[in-house]
Amino acid sequence: MTPQLDLRNVTKRFGGVAAVDGVTFSIAKGEILGVIGPNGAGKTTLLNCISGVYRLDGGDIRWHGVSIAGLARLGVGRTFQIVKPFGSMTVRENVAVGALFGSDSERPPLRAAFDRADSVLELVGLRMKADLPVSALTIPDRKRLEVARAVATRPKLLLLDEVMAGLNNVEIDDALEMVRAVHETGVTVVLIEHVMRVIVGVCERVIVLDLGRTLADGQPDVVLRDERVIQAYLGERYARRLRGG
Amino acid sequence: MTTSQRWQRILIVLGCAVIAYAVLAPLTSLDGAQALNLPLLTDKLWFRLATITAMFVVMATAWNIIGGLTGYAAFGNVAFFGIGAYTTGMLIAKAKWPFLLALPLAPVAAAIFAVLVGLPLLRLRGHYFAVASLGVGVAVGELVQNLDYRGEPIFGGASGLFMPIFAVPNRDLYFFYLMLGAAGVSIAVTWAVIRSRFGYGLIAIRENEEAAAVIGVNTTAYKVAAFALAAALTGLAGGIFAQWNVFIDQENSFPIAYNVEMILMALLGGTGTVFGPAAGAVVLQLLIQFLSGSLPITLDLPFVPEDAMPVLAQVVLGVLLALVVIFAPRGVIDFFGGRSRLTVAYLRRSLRETSI
Amino acid sequence: MAAEPLLHIKGLTAGFAAGPVLFGINVDIAQGELVALVGANGAGKSTLLGTLSGLVRASAGRIAFSGRDITNQRPEAIVMAGLAHVPQGRRLFDTMSVEKNLRLGAYARRDGNIDAELRNVLEYFPALKDKLNREARTLSGGEQQMVAIGRGLMARPKLLMVDELSLGLAPKIVDRLIDVVKEINTAGTALLLVEQDVLVALDVAQRAYVLENGRIVLAGAAADVKDDPNIRKAYLGL
To answer: What is the per-residue pLDDT across B57-77, written as a single tens digit (0 to 9) for each?
Structure first.
């Protein structure tokens, strides 16, 4: 079966330094994939390559078998680490704008966009707060809003960039429920994270990047025990905690 | 009823009264009305002031589309006014076109110019864009005045451009209604934009351009479209002005002061709203005319000589702009939305508060 | 506490134009102590640090530092009194070099031993030694956090407050930074750690405060706080 997204030898350089260096892996439709690695390992660069923000210096990215190198707007939604809500709009309007635009050629009328916004708000658990201004939302809720707006664009692939940063364990668990709910609607999800609770909690597969290259690729409980990953990224104390519980 | 709701009601009633007055009062100057012995509510001065006010309603409302909705504070929109004026002017004076045929080309020319200049200009953000657009605005005015072809100024040069007077009965009334019509079009266009997909896209660009781009808004196309729309409306006002005034030159078609005035009007009235800029235009225009001594009621300040009044007017406007931005950045709504911000404590706090 | 506390906060209420965020806060930190402040998002942790360092206005209550009242003093005066703030998200001077960033940390000092202080700070963060001339924004997240903490240390504070040290950093880097924090504490500087990662904070601190909706709901020895069943449920999800 053709994978949904196929990265082959993807390379992106910035002034002589390869931020992403020959990365190769595929994502099947409907997977939840985690991407971890030290800062500067190339995670966000990789994300930007996939969502078409950067042009590749080498390699190829195929979307359902068709090369998309450099094309933006074809069903990829993404969130930002530092949330970027539309401040003067209400929660519902924020999500409706996502539904109005979005990455396919569908241009729904205003009415339909707002209806879609409502159903997405229900999905992420913000239905009760739909009429509030963004300023009234807590940080975890703003992250939900960010995800909701991205989901409203009807993406086939959703890229979540460190969406769990700054949340405590209980807030993370709530957010994971939301990610699962979104995933169940058929969206492929890729999460970049530093919070292992997320990787262990929701990812079926995790890829570790280090210095622009893939260090490991497999199931979370296997990868997180890999000595090289512990060396490069987790550190002994953390690994002990993961193992010990 | 809350305070703000009460104020809203008052404003709506007031607004309707002003509009009704503006639309109906000119009719008293018609021969038919005079025959009925209706009181003459308007005179030459009235028509002049009213037409200029309507002109500013067009410009402020137009500016609001690029400045208020999209968040790109253009400081050189008077260029579009002048382009509109000179397009119509040249077609009438040099190519001998009839006025009503030349007028539609004014917004078209302004829009085309906006697209050409906007594509590079709108890549800039914030103050860079503001300054660059100001530069363009000034440059266009200078070019129009000074461009020569084989020794002869193309656009009439320093002596300006004269047009034949547009022969129509009740000329003052005619041009007032024409300008009022343009104002109506401006407001209607703003109304349509604000509730459309296009409008949401513009507001999204204003609030967070990166996020807007990532959810699929074609930010370049939208920004340029907003810029062109603002230009077209402003150009329309310029085109009407040209024939109305019969004479155009750099000074009356590209006055730099208009840039600040249209922005101040939109800010004072409330950017991002449909009627805000219009209200701001009416109020501010009255103030400007009052300070310049054009109104029947004049101000006699002790140490200020007569001819310094226009300069004083500019000073007052500058200070007013600063005050509005500090205390009422969302316009008059800020006062009527409950807590008044016009306090020293607010100023101190907003200067002191830092985001952590 | 036998000796007078280094930092004594009593009945502190503070917030913004929209309303108060902190209500009646009472906190004490002794000389050389390492104290953790944990709590959910929006609980007011960053606001508390901001109030201590003079960025947020206190509307009621008192903050005493080294016996002096520093409530609502100007931020520069507070730094000169010996209280340094390492803000959330690093907030470095992006286009300036690492060395400039560090030296600016000593801006308020008048004693002129800045070079010695710089050497001292680089002993804590040897990874920065060969990066002194690099622009701060070209550093990795972990290195930037080192510069941020180093900048705070350059003021030679008696109390260093660090806001969300672990934010967005790889676990290994967080471990290393926590080790440095311990070293700093051993050398005599008191520390107030505001942390989202409760385990990390409670493992290294001696005492802890828990902030919820702007109020202190629990205070005590770090080990006790960690074992508290409510805390385990609410923050560790256990």
So the answer is: 999 999 999 999 999 999 999
Q: Is residue C25 part of a domain?
A: no
C69-79 core/surface letters (b: 16 or more CB in 10 A; e: else): ebbebeeeebb
Task: Report the topology of domain B43-289.
Answer: ABC transporter involved in vitamin B12 uptake, BtuC (1.10.3470)
DSSP assignment of B192-249 equals: HHHTSHHHHHHHHHHH-HHHHHHTT--HHHHHHHHHHHHHHHHHHHHHHHHHHHSEE-
The predicted complex's ipTM stands at: 0.85
What percent of chain B has pLDDT above 70?
A: 89
- The strand pairing partners of C135, in sequence order, are C97
Q: How many CB pairs under 8 A join B and C?
A: 19
Determine which of A81-95, B24-38, B95-109 has the lowest per-residue pLDDT on average.
B24-38
Per-residue pLDDT band at B338 (split at 50, 70, 90): very low
pLDDT in tens, A13-57: 887 788 899 999 999 988 999 999 887 788 888 888 887 778 888
The residues, ordered by sequence, that sit 6+ positions from B323 with a Cβ below 8 Å of its Cβ are: none
Confidence band for B356, pLDDT divided at 50, 70 and 90: very low
Which chain A residue has the Cα nearest residue C38?
A168
Domain residue limits, chain B: 43-289
All residues of chain C having their beta carbon less than 8 Å from the beta carbon of residue B353 are: 16-17, 56-57
Contact between residue B235 and residue B84 where contact means Cβ atoms under 8 Å apart: yes
Is residue C110 less than 8 Å (CB to CB) from chain A?
no
Task: Name all domains of chain A by residue range, CATH numbers in brackets.
Answer: 1-75+156-245 (3.40.50.300), 83-154 (no CATH)
Separation of alpha carbons B118 and C185, rounded Å: 57
- CB of C183 within 8 A of CB of C150? no
DSSP C147-163: HHHHHHHTT--SEEEEE
Residues 113-132 of A with CB under 8 A from C: none
Instruction: Kindly report the CATH number assigned to the domain that includes residue C178.
Output: 3.40.50.300
